Amino acid sequence: MVKEKTKERGLSARLEARVAPETLAVVKRAAEIQGRSVSEFVVAAAQEAAQRTIAETAVIRLSIEGQRQFAEAILNPPPPSPRLKKTFQVYRQLSRGAR
Questions:
Q1: pTM of the model
Q2: 44 in a domain, yes or no?
Q3: Which of 22, 40, 83, 92 could bond to 36 as cystine, CB 3.0-4.6 Å?
């Protein structure tokens, strides 16, 4: 019957973990509080943590001063240094040879 429910919900991937008994007890208690099974609780918690981690890397947070410096660099970039000019020159030569 559990397998039928799993198939009905479109679940097929399996996730396993070994945890200390104390950790399992805390997870069981939290799952009970939320009225979920341990599996449902763990999957929901893992998904929330994964989404939060991904979101944190997608957004750049800057202080007010950092924002000002970033805007200044975009609006008024410094002239290319001699090293950057040389790098552009090498790149152009290499990209012409690749054609």
A1: 0.56
A2: yes
A3: 40
